[in-house]
Amino acid sequence: MHVPDGFIDAPVSVAAGVFAVGAVAVSLRGARRELDERTAPLAGLVAAFIFAVQMLNFPVAAGTSGHLMGGALAAILVGPYTAVLCLSVVLLLQGIFFADGGLTALGVNITVMGVVTVVVAYGVFRLLTGLLPRTRRSAT
Fold first, then answer.
1. Strand (E) or helix (H) holding 116
2. pLDDT tens-digit profile of 22-53?
3. Which residues contact 78 (CB under 8 A, 6 or more apart)?
4. β-sheet bridge partners, residue 59
C-alpha cells in the first residue's frame, strides 16, 4: 500500500525523506559489490516485474489500496542493496507518472516499502538459509 500525499504530516515526511536519501546513498555504495554481468540485467527485470505487480491494486479501508510489494523477491534475487535501488526507482516512477503515493510521501514510501521490507525479508532469508539444512532442493 502506498502512503498517499497528505496522509502523513510534514515533519514525519521530511524525516522519512532524509532517512530514505541516506538509505539510497548506502545502497548505491553496496550495489557496486552486488552488481555483475548476471545481476545487472536481472535487477532491471526485477524492477519491471515489481512495477507491473504493484499496479494490480485491491481496495483497503480509508480510500487507499493495497498491492504486493516485491521487496522480499528483489532482495533474494539481486541482494539487499540492489533491491532498495530497484524499489526506489519503481516508487519514484509510480509517484511521478501515476500519482501512486505522490512525491511528498515518496520518502515514507521508500522507507516503508523499500528499506524496511528489504531489510526484514533479507534478514529472514539469511536466517532461514543458515538454519535449514542444504539439500538438492534448497533455494541456495
1. none
2. 999 999 999 999 999 988 999 999 999 999 99
3. 34, 39, 42, 43, 46, 86
4. 65
